[in-house]
Amino acid sequence: MKSETYSTDVCIVGGGPAGIVLGYLLARSGxxxxxxxxxxxxxxxxxxxxxxxxTLEILQECGLSTKFDAxxxxxxxxxxxxxxxxxxxxxxxxxxxxxxxxALVPQWDLLNLLADxxxxxxxFRLCVEHxxxxxxxxxxTAVGAKAKMNNGTAEIRAALIVGCDGRRxxxxxxxxxxxxxxxAPMDALWFRVPREPTDPSGLEAILRAGHIMVMINRGDxxxxxxxxxxxxxxxxxxxxxxxxxxxxxxxxxxxxKRSQSIASWDDVKTLVVGVDRLECWTAPGVLVIGxxxxxxxxxxxxxxNLAVQDAVAAANIIAEAFHAHRPLDHTVLSKVQRRRxxxxxxxxxxxxxxxxxxxSSVLEDSGDPPRIPRLLRWITRFRWARNIPARIIGYGFRxxxxxxxxxxx
Length: 409
Ligand SMILES: Cc1cc2nc3c(=O)[nH]c(=O)nc-3n(C[C@H](O)[C@H](O)[C@H](O)COP(=O)(O)OP(=O)(O)OC[C@H]3O[C@@H](n4cnc5c(N)ncnc54)[C@H](O)[C@@H]3O)c2cc1C
What we know:
- This protein is of the alpha+beta class.
- It has 2 domains: 2-74 and 103-182 and 274-363 and 400-406, 3-Layer(bba) Sandwich (FAD/NAD(P)-binding domain); 186-229 and 232-271.
- The chain is built from 11 helices and 20 strands.
- The radius of gyration is 22 Å and the shape is globular.
């Protein structure tokens, strides 16, 4: 069994959108960075694929737009929801600046692009198959992390540990940071069904009495989320798969034959939806960002957006302190929470309203077709009104910008 020890300025736990963007920006700013990722690669089926205008803007600020544009992608300018037999155009990006579309790109392509770019800097190191099991403390301050590898263990010593390890964060557990559990009324069953070139090209959200289904275009297949009341997924799984195939076909008639490609329940993964946030995003020697600091509801598909914005804010603050030779202590690190907490809270509050007013009432299955709130109906009437949800989903609140003055490469 191998036992390795590395040391670095910043050790980032987790190579998702938050960790890879932060790693890229810090490395480019001349800060030595190690990103520890437990998986061998970024190839994971059940992850968000939405690259929002705010992230497109960050890629542009980093000079990566041309490379990003070369990735296979679908661009969406509007999205509609299907409520009963009605189709309601609800989101419209046209007219928004500087980007008037949302790009659907497999998350692994985006992460591979950023990791490849970061590897050009000698200050960047990505260690895959390194699962952090615990943090190392000295006098109550985190001074490193211990990781499990296939063939041994590694100890990584660092001036700062950043927890970017998602909703089941080991870093936040190791630091005993207090979590405010907000909760969600639903879970989601994820699966894929083949897509035909003549199918609609973007995102499809279908709401019928007792049923919600969201379909994401992934080229030759649909990635589909079938939303169920919290905890009820296991009951559904007791039923024959043919029943589930019929439910899917009943919601999207174009899938009538193709729903049979869901051959067994093994093809269906359950996502336990949660909404929470940390009261404090820092502990001595530790900063936590992205889903690890605030797990978002899937409503609006904004989790990646917020994770990337957190990473940009954190990189700006850490790199500036690093170049000014200031210690990465609570005074510096708490600035990240001060910048990013209220945009997060605002979006979570909106998600909670949607969870209560729309999701819960549709899933109640009263037998009646879902009622469309008056505000939603009004929004669908005018393009400028449809721009409002597009701006909130696409750009969020308090847009972050890369501080290129920190760049050394
Ligand atoms: C099924 C699903 C669909 C989603 N769809 C969308 C969508 O369409 N749009 C959207 O914006 N958001 C979506 N989200 C949410 C979005 O994926 C997250 O909000 C976003 O990825 C958060 O980024 P992150 O970097 O903070 O965390 P994550 O993406 O969760 O990344 C955490 C990383 O840390 C690694 N890791 C975890 N523990 C350890 C450890 N102990 N040691 C080392 N590495 C570790 C994980 O392997 C992972 O790579 C979806 C989420 C799910 C689960």
